[in-house]
Amino acid sequence: MTPKPAKQKLVRASFTIPRPEYAVLDALKARLVKLARPAKKSEVLRAGIKWLDTLPDAALLQALGAVPAIKTGRPGKAK
């Protein structure tokens, strides 16, 4: 019998994302459904992280420069 691979430890994370970028995440999920490869939001985000990890430094800095900084923390309550 081959031994089972050790389970990966998972980290639960919470973050703030602007509504338009969240809409892009939903659009990517819908696009993947049309491509017969449904995915969870976390899978789409993890794919993006893996792709960013392959970029050379200059391209990584350029990609990060295209993302505006936002105030961190939980958004205020809607009025």
Characterization of this structure:
The chain has helices at 19-34, 41-54, 57-65. It has 79 residues and is mainly alpha-helical. It has a domain at 41-66. The radius of gyration is 17 Å and the shape is extended.
In short:
The longest helix has 16 residues, at 19-34. With 79 residues, this protein is an all-alpha fold.
Which helices and strands occur, and which strands form pairs?
Elements: H1 19-34, H2 41-54, H3 57-65
Low-pLDDT segments, ≥5 res? none
The chain-level mean pLDDT equals 91
**Helix count, DSSP H or I runs of 4 or more residues:** 3
Helix content: 40-55%
Order of helices and strands: HHH
The backbone outline, from C-alpha atoms, is extended
Give the terminus-to-terminus CA distance: 60 Å
Percent range for β-strand residues: under 5%
Biggest β-sheet, characterized? none
Please state the CA-atom Rg, rounded to the nearest Å: 17 Å
Strand tally: 0
